[in-house]
């Protein structure tokens, strides 16, 4: 290395090299990656919380007591209900009113499964056509169960059936399993699955009437 001399010929020693800066590879990019991941996760969490909050708000608006959607059995026709050799033969029709009293919220009924029970045993099933119910609207569902199904009645259950057969008045439960969405303006909620239970029905044989001995009102369970 050449030695440096001053203008007056004085010797100042070898030239001092510039300071070296050391860089640890990967550290900066790793920090950036961690920050980006945390930011992305926070955005996802906030988005999910916002959607859940909107969903809960709309559900509250729909099912709060003053604006509750109402299900009501209005008419029932039972023309056959015969149990022999553990086979139940039946012919049963329900009319169910669904009242949406909300002024701005519509309801998509994407799936409607109707089931009939006697002594906690299912004997009837019908899948109904999906539909959209507008605000402040009443829709009537016509549910028909007809056929035969193995139903085992023993002990107290058989005694209860024979008693109801003698009176001509049967205790039958109607259940609706739903998959619905709510619409508020252009916003649609995700699907959820309420269950409608009409379990206080006393139905007379061979006659078209309202659900005898009961109000016909149904309960909504989530």
Automatic annotation (TrEMBL):
Cell cycle among keywords: no
Annotated Late embryogenesis abundant protein LEA-2 subgroup domain residues: 96-194
Main location group: membrane
Signal peptide boundaries: none
Membrane topology summary: Single-pass membrane protein
Subcellular location: Membrane
Regions crossing the membrane: 40-63
Pfam families assigned to the protein according to its UniProt record, in alphabetical order: LEA_2 (PF03168)
Swiss-Prot/TrEMBL keywords: Membrane, Transmembrane, Transmembrane helix
Keyword Membrane: yes
Name of protein: Late embryogenesis abundant protein LEA-2 subgroup domain-containing protein
Organism from which the protein derives: Salix suchowensis
């Amino acid at each position: 290395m050449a030695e440096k001399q001053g203008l007056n010929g004085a010797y100042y020693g070898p030239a001092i090299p510039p300071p070296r800066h050391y860089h640890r590879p990967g550290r900066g990019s790793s920090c950036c990656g961690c920050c980006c991941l945390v930011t992305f996760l926070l955005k996802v969490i906030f988005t999910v919380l916002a959607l859940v909050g909107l969903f809960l708000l709309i559900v509250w608006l729909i099912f709060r007591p003053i604006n509750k959607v109402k299900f009501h059995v209005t008419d029932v026709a039972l023309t056959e209900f015969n149990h022999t050799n553990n086979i139940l033969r039946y012919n049963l029709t329900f009319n169910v009113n669904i009242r949406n009293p909300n002024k701005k919220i519509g309801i998509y009924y994407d799936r409607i499964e109707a089931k009939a029970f006697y002594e906690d045993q299912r004997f009837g099933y019908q899948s109904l056509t999906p539909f959209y119910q507008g605000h402040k609207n009443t829709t009537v569902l016509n549910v028909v169960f007809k056929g035969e199904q193995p139903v085992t009645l023993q002990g107290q259950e058989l005694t209860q059936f024979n008693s109801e057969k003698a009176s001509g008045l049967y205790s039958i439960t109607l259940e609706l399993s739903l998959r619905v969405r709510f619409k508020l303006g252009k916003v649609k909620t995700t699907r959820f699955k309420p269950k409608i239970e009409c379990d206080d029905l006393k139905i007379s044989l061979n006659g078209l009437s309202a659900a005898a001995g009961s109000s016909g009102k149904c309960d909504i369970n989530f």
